[in-house]
Amino acid sequence: MNAAALAFAIRRLRRPLAALFGAMLGSVAVADGAGMCLKRPIRFTHYEFGLIYSAGQGGIDDDLQKELARRSGCRFETMLWPRARTWQALRTGEIDMAGSGIPTPERDAFAWFYPYIVEDNVVVLGTRVPADVHSFEQFIRRPDLTFGGVRSYRYSPYYDRHVDELIAARRLKEATDPGALFRMFTVPRFDAFITSPILYLHYVKKRNLPAPARIEDWDPAGATPSGLVLSKASFTPAQARKWGDLMNQMLADGTVERIVVKHMGAEHGPATVYRPNGH
What is the homologous superfamily of the domain 122-216 according to CATH? Predict the structure, then answer.
């Protein structure tokens, strides 16, 4: 084969190879765009919530976020913010992801939720609450009693409805975080508040606060699912489904339960894990 013929053959060979490499590069770009990661580190916020997360001590969400990073291969940037600020930032996309969030109709408009725990919220009652008060309705009928809560917290449809009534009646004393709420109750600045084992196990045992003398469950609906929160301003629906699939894998293989039991103990941990067919 002379030089001219060889050059012609090479040019003909290059065209299909170029098309092949172009298709390969295109498929890689599509796969990356449909993946779980963002083009920058995923901004994940923690918030002070007892055994969920405590500054300097970590918690359930700290271990969970690290496992999500390990399994997904995505880069993360973590920070500790007040919960009220986090919800606003998830709305705008300033924050991409958070842990242990409870869905509401308002939040569903800007975030996806993938539960991994349940919060079994109960009411802690102070000594000034009469012994015959055993429901929110009875509590509200006593105008001399006040309630405590953390700004922006949601608990369950039942509890939220009555907390909103107390807010409207100016009978809710707000705290900046759960630690402040427990401290205010011991003074006491109010007569009752909502909590869960995730919180009181932490503050009673680790912060040496007095154990509540009277705890009652007023919510007829039971425990409330809580989970991974993804901003719709940051992730596509396809990406969100992949994170949901990953969370379901971690529930199915026992990873979530091992993390929760590590922090809550064998007595309370298993009941706190979200069961897709049981809650």
Answer: Periplasmic binding protein-like II (3.40.190.10)
